[in-house]
Amino acid sequence: MKNVLCMLIVLAAGQLYAQKNIYESPRFDELSQDHQTLAILPFLTTLELREANGTEALGDLEEKEGYAVQNALETYFQNRRKKKKFPVSFQNIKDTRAKLAQKGISYKNMDVHTVPQLAEILGVDGIISGSLDLNVLLSKGVPTEFSVADYFTGNSNYGRIGMKISDGNTGKLLWKYEKQIDKKTGKNTDDLIDRMMKLAIRKFPYERERKRDRKGNSN
């Protein structure tokens, strides 16, 4: 019994370590000091589905999942801005999509353009983008019932999400957050993003900057 308990503790610790990883550039303050507006791009998605999904093409499903994350992030930041003021604003994703479409840029060819190119087209100071690796269609919802056995069978793991912020002028990576997706992460895309950002918000650089500015203004 003790051996099983120890194994579960080690496994849980390993899962916790693997679930999230945050990086911030030492040049963040320098490169982001003039940032006013960020654009959110659809996340580049890779699907490895465990079961067939009818006749819908895999590429179309990946695109839908990528846009679902873009939608969920916009919703999160809109709700966040209602509660607390950010030092940056977020471009309406309808405007983002329209501006890209006008230049012939779609989900399928977006990754061949550099961050500075995209930022110039969109008229923004920074880009929020990311990747999504899934073995389920998260946007349609997933079961959240959990058992210890799921860790051993692998049934609890749905994939991994990576979110990053890049400086529009230089293209430099400013901030990156990676997290494993499992049954505890959320039941759908909106739930995933909401829970993920609540975990990351204390390390979200613009949130930190806002707090620092408020402290400085109070002196």
The residue ranges in which pLDDT falls below 50 over 5 or more consecutive positions are: 1-19, 144-154, 210-219
Helix content: 40-55%
Total of helices: 8
Major pleated sheet: 7 strands, mixed
Separation of the first and last Cα atoms: 57 Å
Calculate Rg over CA atoms: 19 Å
Q: Work out the strand percent.
A: 15-25%
| DSSP strand count | 7
- Output the helix-strand order: HEHEEHEHHEHEEHH
Mean pLDDT: 79
Structural class: alpha/beta
Describe the global form: globular
Walk me through what this model shows:
The structure is a single chain. This protein has 219 residues and is α/β, with parallel strands linked by helices. It is 44% helix and 21% strand. The protein is built from 8 helices and 7 strands. The chain has helices at 2-19, 28-32, 58-83, 93-102, 115-122, 149-153, 189-200, 205-217, and strands at 20-24, 37-40, 44-47, 89-90, 126-134, 157-167, 173-182. Strands 1, 2, 3, 4, 5, 6 and 7 form a 7-stranded mixed sheet that branches. Helix 3 (58-83) crosses helix 7 (189-200). It is globular. It starts with a helix and ends with a helix.
